[in-house]
């Protein structure tokens, strides 16, 4: 396992340390302590990979915006993309099943049942297509 002074090089704390070192390449500990009104010891802990308290993370996010948030929470964004991709595949499979049911109903000899099936499948198709559209939009926003 990759560690620095016994602290794992992964997760929120380590990625925050990476960001802080990039923003404060010179006298990082002193500059961080002054900027965030924390002790030099606390700044040193952050640089070692220990995660800041929530209110400090909020201040950092307000200061550096979405680039900072995406960097330190990148695991959450990756999980979200995977989850959205699985959900989209599930919805597309449901749509395919309804389309197959509609095709089968259209080929049946009972005209009344075919009309009912067309109506139900059409409503389902619209709902599933709407959900897929929303997932595409959400996914493209998160990718940006």
List the helices and strands and how they pair.
Blueprint: E1 3-4, E2 7-8, H1 11-23, H2 28-36, H3 40-48, H4 54-72, H5 74-107, H6 111-143
Antiparallel strand pairs: 1-2
Helix pairs in contact: 2-3, 5-6
Which keywords apply here?
2 strands, 2 domains, rod-shaped, mainly alpha, two-stranded antiparallel sheet, 144 residues, disordered N terminus, 81% helix, single chain
Distance between the termini: 31 Å
| Average pLDDT level | 78
**Main sheet strand line-up:** 1-2
Structural class: mainly alpha
Q: How much of the sequence is in beta strands?
A: under 5%
How many domains comprise the coordinates?
Answer: 2
Main beta sheet: 2 strands, antiparallel
Instruction: Sketch the topology as an H/E string, one letter per element.
Output: EEHHHHHH
Instruction: Give the fraction of residues assigned to helices.
Output: over 70%
Number of helices: 6
The dominant shape is rod-shaped
């Amino acid at each position: 396992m990759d560690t620095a002074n016994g602290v794992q090089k992964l997760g929120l704390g380590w990625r925050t340390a990476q960001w802080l070192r990039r923003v404060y390449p010179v006298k990082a500990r002193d500059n961080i302590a002054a900027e965030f009104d924390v002790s030099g010891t606390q700044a040193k802990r952050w640089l070692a990979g220990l995660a800041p308290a929530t209110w400090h993370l909020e201040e950092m996010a307000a200061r550096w915006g979405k680039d900072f948030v995406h960097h330190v929470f990148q695991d959450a964004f990756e999980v979200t993309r995977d989850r959205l991709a699985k959900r989209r595949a599930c919805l597309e499979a449901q749509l395919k099943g309804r389309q197959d049911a509609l095709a089968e109903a259209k080929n049946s000899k009972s005209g009344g049942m075919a009309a009912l099936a067309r109506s139900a499948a059409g409503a389902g198709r619209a709902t599933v297509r709407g959900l897929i559209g929303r997932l595409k939009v959400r996914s493209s926003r998160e990718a940006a």
